[in-house]
Design brief:
The chain is of the alpha+beta class. The chain contains five helices and 27 strands.
């Protein structure tokens, strides 16, 4: 029998159908099942009178869809957080959820630690301290901690890399690693972002690490990586960058701890960079070509010897110190090999270089804070220039203590060897 009551209008049927389709898509991701047919507008045997205008019915459908989406998103991690903050330190930039807080800064590079969890250093900011532990994070309750750091060491040489295995995110290239180390007790995902013109694992690349067991927060971290981009000034290969500079003046180095003179014609090949946790390089100078042999990644590092070319009578000099670590025992190791000016030195080899160590006043050879001068020279002229540098070496007033050391500062030195003598 034909009904005398009007059925749903066409616009109401479209609104109901849209609502059913949306609920079906949400249900597909949920652990329960919703039958799309049960939500679709039926062809009733007896039409149901509608007392809502079509526009209001459609509006209610939109409100219901939005409400269900808000209900489902926190539990399922549907999409990254909408509200975003922006970070830009002049070297690189990225966006991150406004809900994330700044939890601290990484030592050394001063890069921010972000997230909703808790984070602190396990050794009060001193990686060389006795009993130093790893960074301590707490991401319980679905929270997240995101840290970042740049591979240490001198900037790497530019390469023509095909970067196989990388995945593009945003306008950069990344390589993702899921941590499987037995020492990691929390789910950890890391992305290495290579600097333009660099290959993976090179010094100067950036790492971003997310610690979380919440898929929604991991999606937020991935979205952050997708917005990452290097500033033009950070591209050593394609953008003009200032040459490394040394403290002091032309031909004179002075970092407030020690000073020395060097030929003004020498180029500054590198300045003030760490080689891992144990070595600090103050300067690399000379007329030859040089490249660091150390490469550092998130899981450690490796040094295979510097690459140096001093052919044609050229010279390269590297000034460095062993830093950190436990204080060695006093053994009476104060026998010098030679003396240049007022400075007694112990001679050894550093790869293919001759290394002359200058003892810290009151300390012994082989101790932390002794200064090493490694020399690569093709011919006696370059060697004589390096020896003259050592002869000009002086410890700055105020940095020399000697307290608690083993050797008196006025330990008699062996006979002086004139610069250039074999």
């Amino acid at each position: 029998m034909a009904s005398d009551e009007p059925g749903l209008t066409a616009s109401q049927e479209r609104a109901a159908s849209a609502l059913g389709a949306a609920l079906h898509e949400i249900a597909a991701a949920e652990p329960f099942h919703v039958d799309r047919g049960a939500l679709a507008a039926p062809a009733p045997r007896r039409a149901i009178r509608s007392y809502l205008p079509a526009a209001l019915a459609a509006a209610l459908a939109v409100v219901l869809i939005a409400s269900l989406a808000v209900f489902a998103a926190p539990r399922l991690g549907i999409g990254p957080s909408a509200a975003q903050s922006h970070f830009d330190n002049g070297q690189f930039a990225f966006d991150y959820p406004t809900a994330w807080q700044t939890l601290g800064t990484e030592p050394g590079g001063g890069l921010p630690v972000l997230g909703t969890g808790s984070w602190r250093l396990g050794c009060e900011g001193d990686p060389s301290a006795t009993g130093c532990g790893e960074e301590i994070t707490d991401v319980s309750g679905g929270r997240i901690v995101v840290t970042m750091w740049i591979n240490s060491g001198a900037p790497a040489a530019c390469v023509k890399a095909d970067n196989l295995g990388a995945a593009p995110l945003g306008d950069t290239w990344i390589q993702r690693y899921d941590e499987t180390s037995t020492y990691v007790r929390q789910p950890t995902t890391r992305w290495e972002i290579r600097r333009p013109g660099y290959d993976f694992s090179m010094n100067g690349n950036l790492w971003i690490q997310a610690v979380t067991d919440n898929p929604a927060e991991l999606a937020n971290a991935a979205a952050m990586v997708a917005t990452f981009h290097w500033e033009a000034a950070a591209d050593y290969c394609h953008s003009p960058t200032a040459a490394p500079t040394l403290p002091g003046s032309a031909g004179h180095f002075d970092n407030g701890q020690f000073a020395f003179d060097y030929p003004a014609s020498w180029r500054v090949l590198a300045a003030d960079y760490p080689e891992g946790m144990a070595v600090q390089v103050y300067a690399v100078l000379g007329t030859g070509s040089w490249k660091s042999g150390c490469s550092f990644t998130d899981n450690g590092g490796m040094c295979s010897g510097d690459t140096v070319d001093v052919g044609g009578g050229r010279v390269v000099v590297k000034i460095w110190s062993l830093v950190g670590g436990p204080v060695p025992a006093c053994t009476g190791n104060n026998q010098a090999s030679a003396t240049f000016g007022p400075n007694a030195v112990a001679e050894s080899t550093y790869g293919s270089a001759i290394d002359w160590q200058i003892r810290y006043p009151g300390a012994e050879f082989g101790w932390t804070d002794d200064v090493d001068v490694a020399i690569w020279a093709d011919g006696p002229a370059g060697l004589a220039q390096a020896q003259t540098l050592i002869a000009s070496f002086r410890w700055d007033p105020g940095t020399v203590s000697g307290a608690g050391m083993c050797v008196p500062a006025d330990t008699p030195a062996p006979p002086t060897v004139e610069p250039g003598a074999s």
